[in-house]
Amino acid sequence: MATTLTNDAMVANYNRIAMEARLPLERGDWTAASQLSVRAAELTIGAALGHFARGIGAARLGDTARAGVEIEELARVQADMTRRGDTDWATVVDIKRRVVTAWREFAAGDTTAALRDARAAADVEDVTEKQPVTPAELLPARELEADMLFAAGKYAEARNAYSATLAREPRRARSLYGAGRAAELAGDKEAARVSYVSFLKQMEHSDGDRAEVARATSSLSAQPR
Known about the structure:
Structural class: mainly alpha
């Protein structure tokens, strides 16, 4: 049964799951993301965020069957929102479904389809207005396309996609680091240095135990002054 929420309840429904999902997603803890509890009313945006986190986590662990289950759940939420005329949120859920689908394709070895679908999802998100109750996407679709390009060894293209993410969401730590690492592997040491410096500045008040912080620091230390 569909659940209709007041605006205050919508904010709480969204934020409860978003706060739980952000830590494992931002840190790339795909096991924790895949096991996130969906503690939200059924067929709501909160539930969709939970299924998105679980689906991305499962796909990035190579568990295509589990990812498929979460894709089906996202499609169910999207269909109900569309039926109720809640087209703006339905579009948001559709983007998340398409992103998880792309990563499931990548995990299954269909890199061509995966990169095509990841780019298409990011293109839609780029022209979709952000919902007022949301601070930002859990993980931007363009950043996830960049992750996929990086995983496919397309480092220059990955750097461009991370840079595009930063144009939309400045100072995102994951994209700053990703742009630096992609530039480094593409052989552009100066671009890597600039991105790493920005990343470390962004992370200077973090807990300091991130592997990315250690790698960025080591890379900068190895560069001639």
